[in-house]
Amino acid sequence: MRRWSILVFLCAAIALRAQDSAVLRGRVVDNNDAPLAGAEVTLHTSNAPPSRTVTDASGEFSLPLPAALAECTFDIEKPGYFAMKGRHIPADSSPRDLRFVLNRLQEVTESLNVSGVSSPLELDSTAPVQRLSGVELIELPGTTSDDLRNSMSLLPGVMQDNQGGVHLNGGAENQILYTLNGFNITDPLTSHFESRLGADAVQSLETISGNLPAQYGKGSSGVVAVNTRMGDNHWSFSSTNFLPGVENRKGLVIGSWAPRIYASGPIVPSRVWFSNTFTTDYAKGVVRGLPRGQDENTSWRFGDMMRVQANLTPSQILFADFLANIWIAPLNGLGPLDPVQTTVDRRSRQYFGGLKDQIYFSNGGLLEVGFSLNRVFSREIPQGHGYYLFTPFGRQGNYFVDGAQKGGRNQYLANYFTPTFRWLGSHQIKAGVDLDAVNFWQSLSRTGFVDYRADGTPARQVVYFGNGVTGRENFEASSFVEDSWRARPGLFFQLGIREDWDQILRNWNIAPRAGFAWAPFRSETTKISGGYGLVYDETALDLFTRPDGQYPVTTFFPTGNATAYSTAAYYSIDRRHFHTPRYRSLNLGIDHKFPHSLFVQVTGLTRRGDYGLVYQDPPVSSTESRYSLEDARRDSFRSVGMTIRQNLHKQYMWMIGYTRSFSHTNAVFDLSPDQPLIVSRNAGPLPWDSPNRFLGWGILPTPFPKWSLAYRAEYHSGFPFSIQDDIGRVLGNPNSTRFPVFYEINLAAERQIGLRGQLWALRLGVDNITNHINPNAVNNDYGSPEFLRFYGDFGRSYNFRIRWLGKLP
Question: Are the C-beta atoms of 35 and 81 separated by less than 8 Å?
Answer without folding.
Answer: no
